[in-house]
Design brief:
single chain, alpha+beta, five-stranded antiparallel β-sheet, elongated
């Protein structure tokens, strides 16, 4: 009986220890979960006042002034301003070190991801997104992005009338560009002239020239590689001028890459990229369709073409370029240009993105991995809580298993002790019994 009592006491002590361990685990988990403090807004080392942005639409650029930029306690700003997607490009990125006062940043109209879009009323709007990052190397949540837009009355008002532009003044003294040529191509014509009608010395004013890029029935701003685009170059309807589209090229807007598309005669250089232009019967509109393409390191794509105006009264103005694979000499091309009234440069641009399954590797973009369909994403906090609950369940299962084993062992001991009890009743051995 004493041994049985000792065994029961040992089992109860073991059970109490297991229950105590289980209670301690529950207490630790509860305290740990409740000890998680709510998120507190960190005391930033920068001033809290929100910056104010002012823009000024200039010829050839947009001047951006940022007041109250995030500064350290000493009042100086150290950080960067750059167009979205061009954090690694030193040409478009401006660094400020220990700068005090309003930040000034000049954004060019025809590069650095600034895109033009021509409106139906003849005005042209340039738009871009700039990033203000108050750190010279890191990207923090204190950075700000600003969408910038500038609208000009017409294309002439937006582009600088310097360098290769031929500028004249009308009766009211307003500068009016007569011809536009590329700043990058020095061998192109540097001036043009308007037509003189008959014996009258009065010049016939040149019509406005436009370039638009469509994706379906809408003006293209952002498309995917391979999307079908339609590029339209046209001049205003009138009875004096026709057009020929020549010298087309596509640029990256960073000064790193350029690809010629149409030569000086108006013929395509690679029909797999862009084919020949189709002209309307009145010679005021030229159209070409092609799949969207881009440079591998940027989403910005800029197109520019030269539009040669010609007199509709001349036979050469109605001739379509013969692109039979033979190249015309530079001398023959120059001879044809002698009778042209002007050469006008037109340009447009858009954003071309890679296909959806391709991950963008931009420095300032958020990288995302392509997860399988059956993947489950769990936050770290939820994962820790799940692990704690699972551990408690396993511990509870172990405790229950131990209790069951102990209970079965106790029942077995009780049954074996009751079966081996000594019988003290009367006993008679018949083998040794005898009668007297």
């Amino acid at each position: 009986m004493k041994c049985e009592r000792n065994e029961k006491q040992n089992n109860m002590a073991l059970l109490n220890k297991l229950l105590q361990i289980f209670i301690n685990l529950i207490t630790i988990t509860t305290l740990t979960h409740s000890a998680q403090l709510p998120p507190v807004k960190r005391q930033a080392t920068l001033l809290v006042k929100e910056p104010t942005v002012q823009i000024q639409c200039l010829q050839g650029s947009i001047l951006i002034t940022i007041k109250n930029a995030p500064a350290s306690y000493d009042g100086f700003f150290s950080g960067r301003i750059y167009p979205k997607g061009l954090a690694k490009n030193s040409t478009c990125l401006t660094e400020y070190r220990d700068y005090q006062g309003p930040l000034k940043y000049k954004l060019p109209l025809r590069s650095c991801n600034t895109m033009p879009i021509e409106m139906d009323d003849g005005s042209i709007e340039f738009f871009n997104t700039i990033v203000l990052q108050p750190h010279l190397k890191l990207m923090t949540d204190l950075g700000r992005g600003y969408h910038i837009r500038c609208r000009y009355k017409n294309r002439e008002a937006a582009i600088k009338s310097t360098g290769s532009f031929d500028v004249s003044k009308d009766d009211v003294g307003v500068q009016r560009p007569q011809a536009y040529t590329s700043d990058e191509k020095k061998d192109r014509r540097e001036h043009g002239r308007s037509l003189i009608h008959g014996d009258s010395p009065n010049e016939i004013p040149m019509p406005a020239c436009h370039m638009k890029i469509y994706s379906g029935n809408k003006l293209a701003e952002s498309v995917q590689i391979g999307d079908q685009l339609k590029l339209i170059v046209n001049i205003d309807k009138q009875d004096e001028y026709g057009l020929h589209v020549t010298d087309c090229s596509v640029r990256d807007g960073l000064g790193w890459g350029e690809q010629r598309l149409i030569d000086a005669t108006g013929c395509p250089l690679d029909q797999e990229i862009v084919g020949p232009f189709d002209y309307d019967s009145d010679r005021t509109k030229a159209t070409v369709s092609f799949p969207a393409h881009k440079f591998p390191y940027t989403t910005s794509v800029y197109y520019q073409c030269n539009v040669r105006l010609c007199s509709l009264h001349e036979d050469n103005c109605h001739k379509t370029p013969s692109c039979n694979g033979t190249r015309r000499t530079k001398r023959a091309t120059d001879e044809d240009e002698d009778g042209l009234p002007a050469t006008i440069e037109v340009f447009s641009g858009l954003y071309v993105n890679e296909n959806a399954e391709v991950i963008d590797d931009g420095y300032d973009s958020v990288l995302k991995e392509k997860n399988p369909d059956d993947a489950i994403c769990v936050s770290q906090r939820s994962f820790a809580i799940a692990v704690s609950i699972t551990g408690l369940c396993l511990m509870l299962a172990v405790v229950l298993a131990v209790l069951c084993i102990l209970a079965r062992r106790r029942d077995k001991n009780v049954s074996s002790n009751s079966g081996s009890s000594i019988y003290s009743g009367p006993y008679t051995n018949t083998a040794y019994s005898h009668t007297s």
